[in-house]
Amino acid sequence: MEINQIPAEDITKKRNRDLAVLSVLLIIYHFAAKLFVYVFYYTSYTVLSGKFSLSWNEVRNYLADRPDTVNSTAYQMSANISVTAATILLTLFIAGVFFKTTVWSFFKIDSKCVKTGVKWLSPCFVFNMLASTAIAFLTSFLNSMGVSVPSADFSIRQPSVIAVIMQITYIVILAPLFEEVLYRGLIIKMVSPYSKTGAVLVSALAFGLMHGNIPQAASAFCTGLIYAIIALKCGSIIPTMIIHSLNNLIVNSPELASALGISYNEAVLSIIEICIGLFGFFVWFTSYKYLKFEDNPDRQERTLALTKVMSNPMILIYLGILVFVIFKRIFEANA
Predict the structure, then answer these.
(1) What pLDDT sits at residue 131?
(2) Predicted confidence (pLDDT) at residue 152 exceeds the cutoff of 80
(3) Across residues 231-259, what is the average pLDDT?
(4) Cα–Cα distance measured from residue 305 to residue 14, given in angstroms and rounded to the nearest whole number
(5) Is 164 in contact with 260 (CB distance < 8 Å)?
(6) pTM of whole model > 0.85?
(7) 298 secondary structure, DSSP code
(8) What is the DSSP letter of 105?
(9) Residue 257: strand, helix, or coil
(10) Residue-wise burial string across 122-158, b where 16 or more C-beta atoms lie within 10 A, e elsewhere
(11) Which member of 90, 180, 241, 334 has the lowest number of beta carbons within 10 Å of its beta carbon?
């Protein structure tokens, strides 16, 4: 039965349940990631030392005495890959077993999905660059005022072939896959029946804020809006996985090439990025109408549905947790 055929009172109950379930799953994902970080540290301590210990102080001190190992890209990417994989698998397991919710329907693959992903790569790249430039001015201003703004660091330390392979595996393959499953697949599926606009906004906000720092949060939110609309219109996360993966590869290609010792010409890379940008603007000007999507045709009902989604207590709690993390990191950086 379609949502609009269900009595209003039942729709309200179902919406509140689905939003509560979604929020619980997102909160589980957030805190499970922190738990699995500790699991990774204990495991790496056991592997590196050949001993097992339940003492966190012993594990922490052992790893602190080996900064070259712990700060290396190979170690950090091992942590990212294992922690993220374990977290998403646990979240999907709980969603499927306890809440009968899956995202497999959003893995629809056809030529149209692939073409859409390739076509919208360059406009998303342009949007990302514009947002990153704007936020760079803000962070520069804050830095000039003595406020340090934390940012992500994906530079490759102790370069090696294995480090580069692991970094590519994470930022080009696994991170786009896992993030699209969670922030497009799960959110779009559970929120769009009640408010497509709300699904787009919640998806973009969650995707932006989960990065944990202002520079990434701002650019990820902007591109997340487009990602969410594309996933919504295609009924698939395949296009956004393509865009996400290729965008990460383009942005990190200079660092990857440098780590592999491959000589590259910055002018050539600049020309490539300019070409991508020009094509991106062309797509924007010729195909911007594609990003329009149909929501409830009644404006009052559409606004009410959006308000109900965005003011849901559980959704607000989850977004509040992510905002708290960002401000906590800012305070710590300026302590």
Answers:
(1) 87
(2) no
(3) 89
(4) 13
(5) yes
(6) yes
(7) S
(8) G
(9) helix
(10) bbbbbbbbebbeebeeebeeeeeeeeebbbeeeebee
(11) 334
